[in-house]
């Protein structure tokens, strides 16, 4: 159960950082296109470009860190809803087993009572 949650977390983080890396690349592309068509002073364009590059590099580093989330198969990994459903099934199974034990004890006590 814990492993499954960590796998879900790994996949979620990987997708999140992958999204941020692509978003950063998109913003950088749009910003550089704007600077080509319009005159933007260097004291504005250089810091913005450096911030976007830094943002992209950090996102790529974390994407690499959580790359194990790529190899997880969709059919093997349960969603959080699936984990909850699995826990509910376990509890229902346990409840049925306990009810069966109680019924068995009652039957034994009834048989004992009939023998006496």
Q: What is the gist of this entry?
A:
With 116 residues, the protein is an all-alpha fold. The chain has 3 helices and no strands.
Q: What is the CA–CA distance across the termini?
A: 49 Å
Order of helices and strands: HHH
Average pLDDT figure: 85
Strand elements, count: 0
Strand content: under 5%
The number of helical runs is 3
Largest sheet: none
General form: rod-shaped
Work out the radius of gyration: 29 Å
Helix content: over 70%
Q: What class do helices, strands and sheet pairing give?
A: mainly alpha
Unreliable sequence segments = none
Explained architecture:
This protein has 116 residues and is mostly helical. It contains three helices and no strands. The protein has helices at residues 2-37, 42-65, 80-115. Helix 1 packs antiparallel against helix 2 (42-65). The chain is rod-shaped, with a radius of gyration of 29 Å. The mean pLDDT is 85.
